[in-house]
Amino acid sequence: LADRVSFLGDRRDVPALLGAADALVMSSRYEGCPYVLLEALAAGTPVVAVSAPGVDELVTAETGPLAADRRPESLAACLEEVLDDRRAAQERAARAQERIAREFVLDRMLAGTAAVYEQCLHAST
User: Model-level pTM?
Assistant: First the structure.
C-alpha cells in the first residue's frame, strides 16, 4: 500500500492537492454534511462516492458516479469509470463545480441557516 498511497498529514494546501488529484473517493456510510466532498467538488475534482445520506444530495448522475452499495466491487467500478473516461469525468466535475459555486456560497448558506432558526422561533410561540 505504501507504494500507492501517501498519507500527507496536516496540510494547508488542500485546495491545490484536491485540484491535482485524479479523483476523490468517499466510501462513508453516513455524512451529515460531507465537507471534504464539497471541497473536492468546489476544486473541480472528479468524485466517486457511495450512496448515503448527505452524499446523495451532492453527487448525482450529472456530477459523478455514485455506487449503490459499499461493496469494493461497486466502488471500484465507479472509480474505473472515472479513470477510463477522464474527459467525461472532468465534464461532470465542471458541472459539479458550477453547482457548488452557485448553491453553496457562504452568504446563501448563512441565510438558509438563519431562516431555519427563524422558523423554529416562530413555530414555538
Answer: 0.78
